[in-house]
Structure formats: C-alpha cells, structure tokens
Design brief:
The chain has 272 residues and is α+β, with helices and mostly antiparallel strands. It has helices spanning 3-13, 22-44, 48-61, 96-120, 156-169, 194-211, 237-243, 256-259, 262-267; strands at 70-71, 76-77, 127-132, 135-140, 176-180, 220-224, 246-251.
C-alpha cells in the first residue's frame, strides 16, 4: 500500500467534534420512560372486572391460588360449586329456572294490565288468560257472541274489546298471533269450510288491530284453526258461542328451554 493511501485512511478515522454516542442510550431511556407512562395511564382506567379476571388467572398460573380446575377459555379460577362431585367437569347450573321466573312474572304483569284495562271498560268477563310454552294467550270469549253465526263480522262488543286490548299491546315488543276458531257446525256460504271461516275471523281481527288501532303490521299474523280446537264440548248455544272465538297469543321471546318451564309455573298459581 502506498504512503498516500495510508495517509488517507488515517485522516478519515479522525473526529474533530464531540463524541455523541451517548445519545443512543439516552434515546433508549426516553423511549422506555414513555412506554412506562403509557402503561401507567392505561392502568389508571382499568376495567375492574377484567383486572380481577386477569389477577385470578395469574394467581392460578403461578400457583398462588390452589385449584384443581380452571376454565382456560376465560382464564379464571373456577369456583368449587361449579365442579361436579368427580371433579371432572362443570356442575350443571340451571339458570333456566330463574330466567323462566322472570319471564313468567313479565307475562303475568302483562296479563294484569290487560285485565285491568278491560275491567275499566266494563269488560272484565270478556277474556280468559293462559300462560304456556308459547306465551300469554288471551281468549276473547264472553256471554255475548264475539262473531255472529257463519260470519266474520265483529260485534260492537268485540270492537270495544279489541280497542282496549290494543291500547296495551302496542306498548310491548312481542309478536302477536291472532288465531280464529269456529264452532263444529257445518259451514255454509260464503265459506266452504270452517277453515276459511276461522281464517276470515282471524284476518278480520288483525285488520281491525292494524287499521283502527295502529298495531304494527310486521308484528302480527292471522291463523285459522277451523273447529279443531274447541274450548266447550257441548252442542248448546252457549257452548257454540264459546267456540266462535279468537285467541290473541302474545308470543314469548324467551329461549326454548325457558318457555318449556312456563306451564309448571302457571300450574303453581292460584286459580283466577
């Protein structure tokens, strides 16, 4: 290598200014401090429930809390009451019963609102009530015929009942099924069968609730059962009048398992 080349490398290695290599360590320290303050700020607004879950999970993971079972999907300690006798699985905790009680109480409160509204109009005996797996059924029957024989024309009493019923139903979110029924006598013109007659009666009620009372169309339907579901078995005028009826069913929006428990709760209630 020539003397000129060695001299050039020696000059390039020289540094006349101050040594600034300390700034790299300083910037690293500033970055760490910033991250620490961000973590501290986040912890100042911690979700208490999530914090407790994390604490329980860490306690289990590090062996500070003795437990034989942990719900790894949630990362929390499983309370002993949720483990079965063999310690192999979660014990069956039936929350359906409490949910069914809440749903039954809600439907019962709705029944009393309807009963009270009808009583204020002098129509206390115009309906009967049943709570079952479907929800609350309001059967619109009374001493006065709800429909004339072989007709879907609503009587004056029927329209009063529907108007009063609608004043309560429009305030709830549940869907409603209007179900028409006929007595067991053979249908004559203009209805070829009791199926058409019962369907026409249900449709007439639905139309009245929508057109006269403003009930939402998307929440209501009409169903015809013909004479297949009588409530009175006799053939007298009073029995036939009872079977010429309409059931307004307020559909429960609870889960299937919850709704299956409703009839048992209804059976425990005193007769009204």
């Amino acid at each position: 290598m020539s003397v000129r080349s060695r001299r050039r490398h020696a000059v390039a290695a020289e540094h006349d200014g101050p040594d600034e290599r300390w700034m790299a360590s300083y910037l690293d320290m500033v970055t760490v401090l910033m991250c620490m303050f961000i973590v501290l700020f986040a912890m100042s607004t911690v979700d208490q429930q999530k914090f407790e879950a994390l604490s329980a999970s860490l306690a289990t993971g590090f062996g500070q809390t003795e437990t034989d079972r942990a719900d790894v999907s949630q990362g929390v300690v499983v309370p002993p009451e949720l483990v079965d006798e063999k310690g192999e699985a979660f014990a069956d905790i039936d929350v359906s019963e409490s949910q069914a009680k809440v749903e039954f109480d809600s439907l019962s409160a709705l029944r009393e609102r309807i009963r009270s509204a009808l009583a204020q109009q002098g129509l206390a005996d115009a309906a009967t009530y049943t709570i079952d797996t479907r929800g609350l059924t309001v059967s619109l029957v009374s001493a006065e015929t709800f429909f004339a024989t072989n007709s879907n024309t609503l009587t004056g009493t029927a329209t009063r009942i529907l108007d009063t019923l609608a004043s309560v139903l429009v305030t709830i979110p549940n869907e409603v099924s209007v179900e028409g029924h006929a007595d067991n006598r053979r249908s004559v013109a203009p209805y070829a069968t009791n199926w058409e007659l019962s369907a026409a009666r249900a449709t007439q009620v639905v139309r009245h609730l929508i057109e006269a009372d403003g009930f939402p169309m998307a929440k209501i339907k009409a169903v015809g059962f013909g004479d297949t579901r009588p409530v009175a078995k006799g053939g007298g005028d009073a029995d036939l009048a009872q079977n010429r009826r309409v059931d307004v069913v307020i559909i429960s929006d609870a889960e299937e398992g919850v709704r299956q428990l409703l009839p048992a709760l209804q059976a425990q209630q005193p007769a009204h």
